[in-house]
UniProtKB/TrEMBL annotation:
Keyword annotations: Ribonucleoprotein, Ribosomal protein, RNA-binding, rRNA-binding
Coiled coil: none
Pfam entry (one): Ribosomal_L22
Protein's gene: rplV
One of the record's GO cellular component terms: ribosome
NCBIfam families on file: rplV_bact
Domain of life: Bacteria
Family (UniProt): Belongs to the universal ribosomal protein uL22 family.
Described purpose of this protein according to its UniProt entry: This protein binds specifically to 23S rRNA; its binding is stimulated by other ribosomal proteins, e.g., L4, L17, and L20. It is important during the early stages of 50S assembly. It makes multiple contacts with different domains of the 23S rRNA in the assembled 50S subunit and ribosome.
Gene3D superfamilies: Ribosomal protein L22/L17
Name this polypeptide is given: Large ribosomal subunit protein uL22
Record carries keyword Ribosomal protein: yes
Amino acid sequence: MNKKKKNNRIKLDTVRSVNNNIRSSVRKLNPILKSIVGKKVDVAIRELQFSAKRITKEIRKTVSSAVANAENNNQYDIDKLIVKEAYCGKKIIMKRFRPRAKGRAAPILKPYSSITIILSEIKQMESHGSKS
């Protein structure tokens, strides 16, 4: 029962977006996702925009979707959003075969992944000092 309350509290503080069936392996996605964790949303989107990797377009789309969810569903301020978590998981693997020499066949594995981006709003403490 205590665990359920904790999960509800986490859902109130955060916004998430999931992108399923991305045509890339988890091994290629993990370094990109680790690089944007803890950064402000606009900095993360800018880094993804100028990256040379092909898959960053899909990650950028997922981050933008999470920002839209935060703005429209929860009325968060976009300037205060940071990427709290970013992780990926395995989905299906399409298996194809390529003919090789002497009647053999070599497998070709085409993996798919899912990306989950969790955003959080920064709570800034206001100083109670006197203004001069």
